[in-house]
Amino acid sequence: MMIELPGLLKERLPSGAFRYRVRVEGNKSRRIRLNVTPDHPDFMEHYRAARRGVALEVHTAPEDRVVRNSIAWLSYKHEAALERQVNAGQASPLTLKKRKQIMARLREEYGEYDMRMPQMKIIELRDSMLETPAWADSMVEGIRSMYRWAVKDVGLCQVNPAIGIEKINKGKGGAIPWTVNDLKKYRKFHKPGSTPHLALTLFMFTACRIGDAVILGRDNEFKQDGIRGIAWQPQKRGSAFVKIPMVPPLYKATRATKVQGPTYLLNDKGKPFTSSDSFGQMFRRWCREAGLQNRSSHGIRKAAGHLLAQEGCSQYQIMAIHGHTQAKTSEIYTKGVERWRMAADAMKRLEGMDW
């Protein structure tokens, strides 16, 4: 492979093989041997590190491959800390996935800068993404979280430069809540016994998020006081454990599909969906097939909340079903046995719906 880079030396060994060495920038007398060849996917990282005087091993940690105390260095350390939280069950894998995307963009733009990032640079980065305002705001929030960790948790920085930066995405009220007509239209197209019908039923009668829907199955079922229920710990960080009765329409739908597996929802190969993203794409396709545009699973969660409220359920009963914990003063009413009692009462109100 022919490759020409400043300071890169290709040397033939007595054996006939080649080795690659790099002159350190600013010190031509010092040469660092590379432990990878140009066909290795990390070759450029090793080359750039050698130019800075750093010799990388093949499995060198990412933060050790970049300039210490740079933004790239800080971002890699933040990712590693978040990965440890995920492994300990203290953070969501979905959060880590999104944060890695944000950190990659940050490194691409400002990776070589000193980690004490001026606030104006964050604003410039946000404003360069005006065409995707939601993603721009997510970028700022990700940077803010990184510096919050750097300041409060590990003391690597003294100031969080992302504090005070305003959002640019005014939003449109979030996901569109499904109407009763939307629900009927979808169910008219996707008949009972089909996976699309099961998906809607699962969302409607559990109010679960899409990340939870793909992992729910019979292992989540239980019986209490002679009542069959379904329980799970939502993946979203800070959500309360959900434990609700399994109403007849949901039980019937979970048993109506021809193929049964470890999860309720299975792909066309009879296997669990590999991720919430893959299932989300399929669900949006099912919505379009039913003539429903701009509809999402989260909109069903909103519809369930609205219908519960219309049926006279209290705020605390809705909290019990949705797994909310934001109303701090009402937590005493929604924990343990009381949470189950209120959830059972709330779900009974939906049993009489024309489904």
Please summarize what this structure is.
With 355 residues, this protein is mainly alpha-helical.
What is the CATH C level class of the largest domain, in words? Answer: Mainly Alpha
Q: Looking at CATH, which topology of the largest domain would you report?
A: hpI Integrase, Chain A
**Percentage of residues in strands:** 5-15%
Largest sheet: 3 strands, antiparallel
Q: How many distinct helices?
A: 13
Uncertain stretches of 5 or more adjacent residues:
328-337
Give me the CATH superfamily of the largest domain.
Answer: Intergrase catalytic core
Percentage of residues assigned to helices = 40-55%
Give the radius of gyration.
26 Å
- Shape, please? elongated
End-to-end gap: 65 Å
In total, the number of strands is 6
Mean pLDDT: 84
CATH architecture call of the largest domain: Orthogonal Bundle
Description:
- The protein has helices spanning 43-51, 71-87, 93-110, 119-127, 133-153, 180-189, 195-206, 210-213, 248-256, 276-289, 297-310, 315-322, 336-348, and strands at 8-12, 18-24, 27-33, 221-224, 227-232, 242-245.
- The protein has 3 domains: 8-60, no CATH class; 71-153; 180-348, Orthogonal Bundle (hpI Integrase, Chain A), CATH 1.10.443.
- Helix content is 45%, strand content 9%.
- It starts with 7 loop residues before the first strand and ends in a 7-residue tail after the last helix.
- The longest helix has 21 residues, at 133-153.
- The protein is mainly alpha-helical and 355 residues long.
- It contains 13 helices and 6 strands.
- It has a 3-stranded antiparallel sheet with strand order 1-2-3.
- Residues 328-337 have low confidence and may be disordered.
